[in-house]
Amino acid sequence: MTTQFEKLLEQTGEYGIVYEVRHPIVLIEGLPNVKAHEVILFEGGKKAEVSTINRGKVEARVFSDEPIKVGTKVTRTDNLLSVPVGKELLGQVVNPLGEPFDETENINLPENRRSLDIRPIGISGRHKVQKQLVTGIAIVDLLLPIGKGQRELVIGDKKTGKTSLLLTAVKEQVKEGAIVIYAAIGKKKSEVKRIKQFLEKENLLGNIVIVATSSFDSPSLIFQTPYSAMSIAEYFRDEGIDTLLILDDMSTHANFYRELSLLSKRFPGRDSYPGDIFYVHSRLLERAGNFKHEKVEQVAITCLPVVQLVEGDFAGYIPTNLMGITDGHIFLDSDIYYEGRRPAVNIHLSVTRVGRQTLSKLSREINKTLLTFLTRYDRIQDVSHFGQELTEDVRKALELGKMVYVFFNQHYQETIPMIVQLIIISMLFHHFIENEETLSKAKTGLISAYDNPEKRKFLIDLANTKDLNTFNENVKNNKENLFSLFN
Fold this sequence. Notes:
Helix 11 crosses helix 12 (392-408). The protein has helices at 4-12, 138-143, 162-175, 189-201, 219-223, 225-238, 250-263, 277-285, 317-325, 334-339, 361-384, 392-408, 418-429, 436-450, 453-462, 468-477, 479-484; strands at 15-22, 25-30, 38-42, 47-54, 57-62, 73-80, 82-84, 93-94, 113-115, 132-133, 146-147, 153-157, 179-187, 208-214, 243-248, 289-293, 297-309, 328-332, 351-352. The mean pLDDT is 93. The chain is α/β, with parallel strands linked by helices. The strands form four sheets. Strands 8, 12, 13, 14, 15, 16, 17, 18 and 19 form a nine-stranded mixed β-sheet that branches. It has a six-stranded antiparallel beta barrel with strand order 1-2-5-4-3-6. The protein has a two-stranded antiparallel ribbon with strand order 7-9. Helix content is 40%, strand content 22%.
């Protein structure tokens, strides 16, 4: 029986010999017509990607976690590194080559394929970021809005709720009909399984593709994870479907790229990372954005890359690189996390550069009012610790600030529609809600009312104004109707 290796050898008429191994890097002599990023095949059926061609010598990254032996024959496939793309991938967990992440599962792979390394679309093919991407997380949607097509970094120490925040955003976006591509880069298999189980339990998996590699996979395969996820996202973009892309996390990606570069004996730079690490990440993230589309006018790939800090160190090499590439960051603070606030977003150290331009006039005014009030609240809270007598205004401000932060305290399985967020904030500022029990009832009741088409129309009509004063008057005049929805 003719093997695939023998078939390809007959087709191309070229073969090479492995003369040096620094697993997963191999050096090969031969293959005179091989191209950069081409997939090559070894005798035993293992695959690799050509990374460098230098004076007739070929350097390749092996995708297998088992080392290749010196003297092994290798031939060309004449195909650049690509991934199968199509709607058949929805609901599946695949590796960067489109193969099942769990080897016991069978997947019907799509026939279409896309190259992993594609040049980003230029400025002439893009639109300004105009629409808000609603995450269902009140503290993000009201204070740090994200636009469709924005690249917003999620940054924080280990175990500060980064994945929980992302899963809440995934839940809301699937509700709105978006496709989500979740890249789990070099994770433990148990973590990938936990993410999949959550998505299955919430009935979200049908709109999601998980591209995953485990920490036991070859560094070459782990390195390709975000590129594969981006290529799949670009397929759905070209189909006219808004896509949310999560890259979890880019610090792991950088570490494995550093390992590959050191094994390739490339000159190390700061913290031993290669000199082109900024280019590698920027070329990837530039592929996200808000694009022109023939059928739907504009379509977006919104990218949420994740980076892990060490003891809150913002000045780390990879975090600062990614901050320079992205359009802002959401900082999850370990101090806030240990105080018990969820999500542990530090409002004052987080940034959104293009998100506010997507807000309606009403949302923009509420955003400005809230930020001004919370800055004042934090200042008053610092002074109140000295124990001097507090005026009535200060006491009311402290109570209101406390209630606003209680409202922002949100379980990761809970999503709050934008209209409900605006109404509850207005009710808090009117002092209609003055204790945690009423707030909990209001939140549950209004979310439930929003799911009812008739009651939803009433809530939408309340917020159907561009003016904050008019909106506040609408809420004030309909106080009894609002309370009837949750009492």
